[in-house]
Design goal:
155 residues, alpha+beta
Length: 155
Amino acid sequence: MPKLIQVLFIAILALVGASAFSPSPRGTSASVASPRQTRHITTSLSMAGPATLEPTKTEKKKKTAEPTKEDQKQGSEGWEVRLFNDPMNKREYVARCLTEIVGLSDGLAYQVMMQAHQFGLAAIIRCHQERAELYRDSLVEHGLVVDMVPVADDE
């Protein structure tokens, strides 16, 4: 097979000529191939086969009805990230951080921020432990006063 590819490459070079693959001199525009050269290029490329690949077939995973051991231990969404009121950050900044980091909508971020401002504490989101840790760490890096606590699923 590699010998066939090498022979085809040499044949293409012979038909098109080596000048078609070399850059044009400075200051001049690239030369346009003549119809005869274009015909040879099209002919040689048409022998190459299809240009698109067929999509790969993937097997669908079977969903199990039983929760895994980790889900049983932690609960499906067993952690809550909470925001505390803090006099240092402006309310707009807190709402923007909630929007950009946690992905809350503007309206929901404003509601959470106002709840923390008025009552001293607000629940931002309930999620798995790893995601809760990620949100907590990111919000703390931005200067917000945040913690996370485990919660029961039935609350």
